[in-house]
Design brief:
The structure is a single chain. The protein is an alpha/beta fold. It has one domain. Helices cover 52% and strands 14% of the residues. The strands form two sheets. Strands 3-4-6-5 form a four-stranded mixed β-sheet, sandwiched between helices. Strands 1-2 form a two-stranded antiparallel sheet.
Amino acid sequence: MKVYSRKMKNLNIESEHSQERPIKLRIEYSPQLEVTRIRNVIEKLDWYKEQGYVENSFLPHGIRREKIRDLTEERIGEIVSEEYDEDLYKEVAARIWAEWEKFSENGLQNLSESGLELQSEYRIRLTKYGPSGSYNYPDLVVLRISEAGPERTLKVIIHEIIHLAIQPYIEKHSVPHWKKERLVDLIFQKILPKLTTKQNIKEKVDDVDESFDHYFPDIEKIAKVIGATNKSP
């Protein structure tokens, strides 16, 4: 049995057995969260382009036809309302929870015993906009619901949880974006080899692999070496 409760117009899902788990998920969504998400994506469009992301599917159709920099909160809210379907979010939330239940039985121990600094609970925010997954330190994972096929959902969530776990080292040692992505892939592959998939890295990252081979599981040492390499002339 799953317990559904509403707080601040967001949906929170917890299992009645969740206290037995080392890691819990709290799933949330709302029209207002989508407005905030769209505003954040608009502000980062230049960065997405610089990193090589294909961002033409990141925003609602109505917004792509307008001058996005001039949009008001009210207009964004109107566009969200036109295509917001709460039943879809509910369906995806239930599917995510079912996948996390399975993962709790078969793979969660590997993640929990990986040595990463993990939170006891993560917020999973569902959205229709932006890249497939993103994160906000220390505990927020943002998941695009078009990525919500069963296995893909789990991969994105774990990928972003690893990001959150290593983010202090990434910031401290100024590890650039694609090298950070490669480091996350390598950690994922090491602790959950049957689940991981390699993403399309758009820069040369051989130094990440070399540092990982030498220093894992010392993530801070790996980040320090990568950061220093990046600063070398």
